[in-house]
Amino acid sequence: MTRTRPPKGLAGLRGRVPARARLAVVAAASVAVGLAAGSLPASAAMPGSDLVLSGTVERFAVDDFGAAHAGEDHAEADHDEGDHDEGDHDELTFVRTRSGAVQVPTSALDHVRDGATVRVSLRPSRTFRVSAAGVEPTGVGTPAKDPEAGASVAAVDVVAEPSAGLTDTGSGTAAAGQTAAAAAPHSVLVVVATPSNGAASSVSASDVAATINGGVDTYWTDVTGGAVSFTATAYPSVVETTTTPCVSGSVGTSFDFWNEVKSKTGFTEGAGKHLLVYFRTLADCGGIAGLGTIGSDLSSGGLVWSNGYNTVGVLGHELGHNLSLGHSNTLDCTYGGSRVMDGDSTRCAKRSYTDTNDIMAVSWQNQGFLNASHLRYLGLLTGGSQISPSDNGQATLSPLASKTGLRAITLASGADRYVVEYRQPTGRDSWMSGLAGWGSTGVTVRKEWDPAVSGFTARESYLLDGDPSTSDSSFGQLYPTLPIGTWVDLAGGALGLRVISTSPTGAVVEYRNGAATTDPRYVPPPMPSLTVPSASLRAGAVTRTSSGPVVPVKWTWKVTAEDGSSSHWASSVRTGRATVPGAAWAYRATEVATSGTAVTTVGRTTGIYRTDAASANIRYSASMKKAYSSATLGGSFHRTYYKGGKVRISVTAKSVGLLLQRGPRNGWAVIYVDGKKYSSINLRAATTSTRVAWAWTFPTAGPHVITVINASSGSRGRLGFDGYVRL
User: Fold this and answer.
1) How many angstroms separate the CA atoms of 498 and 521, rounded?
2) Which of 119, 373, 434, 616 could form a disulfide with 461 if both were Cys (CB 3.0 to 4.6 A apart)?
3) Residue 489 in contact with residue 482, Cβ under 8 Å?
């Protein structure tokens, strides 16, 4: 399905958790509509309250575009606006029985194919109650928006896999031999409906059928080379239903809605047969523009509804789900807090819909050619249109939309694949010449993960950021093409690419299978340089621990650009625990090269803590007396209420932080270093605590004498000394 709220930006999409480990919970009213709300009987009651059901596995895509189509003509009404919501996993999963469909967590059946017959043992969860009487929602959360909601799956047995002779229909499977769908145009029955909670539409079924017979058919015929085409037929009358596809932002009643429309129109499932139900913008759908079931291959049929959108971008996208495709996404990979081009599944998270090059993302008014990873998944890159070399070599890529010549290079690292394509503003990609940041003219790489270990789905595509120095912070700011003339490492250095040249007719690309040392053509890419981070103590709050105080520390280093033309200082404020014997501190600074390679350097120092105990290096004036307080670091400190009372510290260090008491009874103090006045500090505060009240870093390490003198007196003029920290 497709959300219609305008994207506010993608900064919120940069979590570091692998995509499938996080939940795509979309904010909506707290109404949980179960697809099996108490009506599903148990096929067998097992000890321990397990409910055992048998049925087929069905999935549909949860599309959360933001206002992906705000620039398109909307058929009937404006949609709600709001922030772009993240969809980390974009599918809902159901076990469809004869009595209805039961939602289960998507991850529980990740390994099971669409259309497979399964026997599942179900238990209660946060979102669903399970008993011998059946399954019903608890009313907690919005399960029809949450891929990990559903009855808990205690066990699953695959009773039967869908055979090669079966195809997914969007509502079960059918023998491919029943129709010649794979070779003939796909048929689409277009129905305009008025849901039970909706209003009559001014758009006719003929209007929607014309969009499918026009732009939608043209798109899919073009990108599949004629393997798929669509012919739409308009149902002659409006269907009024007693059901609805949405309740309070939840799509949990969609199967019931589709079933009623099928019953009233006589639509029957089959390979290459699609039911598309259009209705006037329904507020209860919460801004969702469309919903489509996920098929198993190009011959699949399926079910679609559209929430007031009669556009190629929405209808073509949902029919793409019927054809088995997921979404076109980008990957946000990081190392040491910096963005890089590639990484393992623990370092990369997907940004849903942001590969705006084709219709399976945010296609807006421009639908670029289907990307090479999706074409591979559909089996449409055959013969000389792609190569999968295992050696080092060079090839010339033709523009993807040219539909001729070599259009993809696929490199392998274990079970992961890297698919290289080239785009130019030609053919279906002609619009890219005037919309930089939406279409990626140049050489790009998409990663096909090993689903068994990574948690990314094969039906989705994942575009790597060939220029991680750009933030790609929002829609229309996508710059993922590879640099020209620079080697780019992939798969941790196991693979490599270098774009030699580009022209309107082709891109010359060198590829490497193996470490850089195996390829005499390899030239190390220019890298930024970093000085070793230097530590300096900072004034601020202190956390007390049994081994010593945790204090603020600032790490600073200099970064010089790859070409040496400029430099700047960078810093990061952290904390470190100082101990009496001294604790080792380290900080790793990272800068990312244009090639995506992370350059790091490590700074090290030792944090040493000294208590307030008098010694040859800590000397007090006569008025500074030892006192005891739970507010101090070690239970005691030295204090004076007399003006002129002082503590003299002899220390050899590069950076020093004084641990002084601040509170309602404290006043002012003056700091002298080597006999010179450095600063006056106000120690008055609402509550009493020990802080790094003053810190100083010298150009080099050396011996110094620091004197702290009380500049106040009386009951509200106390000076309290609790020790110091040095580096």
Assistant:
1) 10
2) 373
3) no
